[in-house]
Amino acid sequence: MLNAITREVSPSIQHCQLTHLTRKSIDVEAARLQHSQYQRCLAKLGCDVHCLPVEPDLPDSVFVEDTAVVLDELAVITRPGPESRRPETASVAKALKPHRELRPIESPGTIEGGDVMQIGKKLFVGLSGRTNAVGIEQLRAHVLPLGYTVEGVELKGCLHLKTAVCPVASNTLLINRAWIDTGAFADMELIDMDPSEPFGANALWVGQAVIYPLAYSATQKRMEDRGIIVATVDASELAKAEGGVTCCSLIFNG
Ligand code: CIR
């Protein structure tokens, strides 16, 4: 049984953090409709979806992925890079408490969940503008006794590790090599996103399928040609806030 924690789109999303994108007007109603479609997709793929109440004063709070790293054994509550995102973690910690023992990332450490990619007992962590070496050390201290390894991975030109690479099947990653070196993934199958779709490497593998933005049809075909089942959603409004399909949920075993 899979759990998915999500959160309603904030009415203040227009004031979200932006790093690599130019600000465009976001239609909150359209974003909410797309987010509902995304949650229905999660439910269809077997997730028990728990949607947290809206946080009107926290523009980026729909991007719950960044607030925690949930493993089978425990959950690490992150400390996001921007001040504006730090208050997002309290309500997520409360929602995770019945499910997992919680461990904190503490100042001056920062980590965002979008930078952490779990492949079995390996955690790859993006050395991004949001995640620092102190944060990675704290994460390592929490998970090393449980048998996990933690490996920092250099990025260039993108927000998070999972903007550049995501698991899409067993031992298989979807990747944008312009933003990340493949060295850390030498023993894995790689599917390159189509060069016309630079944001096409963010995909959410859930159960039997991959939730994926319908905008990136050329990359979608590349996955389907490899036998991967793709469930498309319209994620265009939240893409303007620099969010992708992994960012809007925290998925963990029940
Ligand atoms: C931010 O810059 O923090 C948000 N506007 C977007 C966060 C996207 N999260 C993710 O990729 N995990």
Oligomer class: single chain
CATH class descriptor name: Alpha Beta
Number of domains: 1
Give, in order, the helices and strands.
Answer: EHEEEHEEEHEHEEEEEHEHE
Question: If you consult CATH, what is the topology?
Answer: L-arginine/glycine Amidinotransferase, Chain A
Q: Could you say what the CATH architecture is?
A: 5-stranded Propeller
Identify the overall geometry: globular
- Span between termini: 5 Å
Number of strands: 15
Strand proportion, as a percent range, falls in 25-35%
Say which molecules are bound, naming each kind only once. citrulline
**Helix segment count?**
6
Write out the strand line-up for the largest beta sheet, numbering strands in chain order: 2-1-15
Rg for CA atoms = 17 Å
Structural class of the helices, strands and pairings? alpha/beta
Q: Please, could you describe this protein's structure?
A:
It is a single chain. 21% of the residues lie in helices and 27% in strands. The protein is of the alpha/beta class and 254 residues long. The chain has one domain (2-253): L-arginine/glycine Amidinotransferase, Chain A. The strands form 5 sheets. Strands 2-1-15 form a 3-stranded mixed beta sheet, with helices on both faces. Strands 3-4-5 form a 3-stranded mixed beta sheet, sandwiched between helices. It is globular, with a radius of gyration of 17 Å. The model has no long low-confidence stretch (mean pLDDT 98). The chain binds citrulline (CIR). Citrulline binds at residues 16-17, 19, 60, 63, 65-66, 85, 114, 159-160, 163, 241-244, 246-247.
